[in-house]
Every structure is written in structure tokens, then in C-alpha cells.
Amino acid sequence: MGIIILVYYVGLGIGVLFIIVALIFLIVMYVKRKVEFGLTIKMLGAFLMGALILWITIPSLKSVVTKDFEVINGQCTIEITKDGRYTDWSFNMIDTGEQFSFIETPELEAYGKATPYYCEITVTRDHMWEIGYKIYDFKTRKLIDSNNGG
Q: How would you write the pLDDT of the chain (150 residues) with one tens digit per residue?
């Protein structure tokens, strides 16, 4: 569960850093009575960017820190979306109607709406961060591929 968790913590850290730096700059400018319009706009932008990043990461903090993840399992289909150099693998859970995306390429012989699999998707409790997946043959339940986020 390495790279996804690392990305989560980096995002959380950047959000906190943006807010702290912006607040320090704004307080120093106010105390010294040297308020510059351009710098004030930049620092307000950094503050808002940090707040946005924290708004995305904070809801999952307890789940990530305690490694309290939820496993969603059931029938799924796997579809690929290519956009230039970026490839996105979408896991469509038939039973729940949820969709989860991964950048990692599963080692599959076939994919698409006509090819059902049995999947176990590990996500945070709020379903905001996909951690890993296991793909099984739909009929035999034999493990075909897995990725734990590392």
C-alpha cells in the first residue's frame, strides 16, 4: 500500500505547508504594515490551495493513519481509458454501482463490459482513495492479478 499512501501523505503535507506559509506571510505583512497587493493575492491563493488540498485529504486521515480500510467485493468489469500518455483502468462494481480507478495496469487477457470478473477493491472508509485491488476469475475464483498500492 506504498505509493498511494505516500501520495496521500505528500498531499496532506503540502496542504499544511501552504496554509502555514501563507498565514506567516500575511501576519508578518500586517505586523510590519507593509501590505503589498501582489504578495497578498499570492498568499491568499496559497492559503486557498492549501485549504482545498486539506479538504480533499482530511476526511480520510483516520482511515489512512489507522490503516482501517474497507474491502468492496463482487462482480466487476474492467475498462481502459487512454488519454495521450496517461492510461486509466476503471473497475466498475456491478453489485454496488461504484467505479474505482487505478493507474496500474492489471495483467489480464481480456477486459471490457462483456468480461466479468470477481474483484476485491480496498478503499478508505469514505471511498475517496483507492488503495489496492485483487482480480479473480468470475467462475473459479482463482486469483488472476493483484495490486496492493505499492
A: 567 788 889 999 999 999 999 999 999 988 988 888 888 999 999 999 999 999 999 988 888 888 889 999 999 988 887 777 777 788 889 988 899 888 777 777 777 777 889 999 999 888 888 888 899 988 898 998 888 765
The dihedrals phi and psi of 62, each to the nearest 5 degrees, come to -60, -45
Nearest CA-CA partner of 102 in 147, 44, 49? 147
Which amino acid, one-letter code, is at 28? Answer: V
Task: In the chain, count H helices and then E strands.
Answer: 3, 6
**What is d(CA 46, CA 19) in angstroms, rounded to the nearest whole number?**
7
Q: In the beta sheet, which residues pair with residue 98?
A: none
Gap between the Cα atoms of 50 and 42, Å rounded: 12
Q: What is the pTM assigned to this prediction?
A: 0.75
